[in-house]
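Take a minute with the sequence and fold tokens given here and flag any structure token that looks odd. Thanks in advance.
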Amino acid sequence: MRAVPSMLLAVLTTAVALVGTAAAQTGSEASLAATPTPAGLVAELHAATDAARAAHGLAPLRPDPGLARAAGAHALENARRGVLDHGSPDPARATPAARVALAGVALVEIGENLARIPGTSVARRAVDGWLASPPHRRNLLDPGFTHVGFGVADGPGGRYVVQLFGARPIERIALDASPAVRTRERWRFTLEGPAGTVAMAFLDGRPSARARLGEGDTTLVVDAPPTPAHLVLGVARDRETYVPSDAGTLDRVAGWRRDAGAPFGPVRVSTATFASTAEPGVEVRIGYRAAPAALHLLVGGRHRPEIRPEVRADGFWLRAWLPLASERRSVSVGVLADDGTLRVVESFTLAAGPAPALLPGRPSTAAPTAP
């Protein structure tokens, strides 16, 4: 956990638990009944799970197709291996988070319960067993989980059951990444003054750029405001205090106009140039139907508080322009929790290259191609 401006960033990790003991694999894979998960048994498992939650005052869980795909694939793998295992021999499927991402689900908060049940009454006995085991019980009765998926496969010793939970407090309606060129407008200043002096540019009272003067000219660059603005060039007196040294108005038409009486100190603006350049990058767009709290974007694990959601008739949209990069980056969405923490809900990998794409999961777990 690390601090971000005015809040704490808290990412909840995957919770996993299992029930039962592993049996030695017998026979060959061909002898296993690798059939699709029976719809009737899935309904029984879901009903028994919701009944257990209702007995503790918790809301029912909504079925999630992606979680069901991940649960079904892992149940089949466990049945073929004859084990109960949250891991996998396949490195790409080694964790529940990796398997969920491969199934096309971007959720961050997930929980996995496993069971192997011989004979009949599979749903009731699985849920009773999970309730009797503290780690499984925590997953099953976690009030934060909103969705669930089940997977069942026949194997040595009975039926292998996988129960996958996910927390989805916001419903996503759109996800897109596309090449985009941004026009970057900047003012570039040449500063003159004693070497070693630290100067800060304040644009309409807000700190915009900082530089330490060297031998000869020093360049300071600030993003250009859309309308004329007042700039004050301050010289550091200590780590938190700056004394005005030069000041003037920035105007794209009239240029730099120094205030009367300036410069006031040892550092002055020698030249000021306005320039507009085109920068290639990627535009990311993520839309949600409704938001219980303010939406926030994180890129590469860093909170981007300047990116605020756009409120539209169809929902809430996060839009961000990102510079090109040769490596994959994480793009995550969080909501502000009641305790002031930033709860990360979904995480994606922004694939690099000429055809950018947002893939479910973080870079370490995301699939190389969209599922």
About this structure: The first helix runs from residue 39 to 54. The CA atoms of residues 230 and 277 lie 23 Å apart. The radius of gyration is 28 Å.
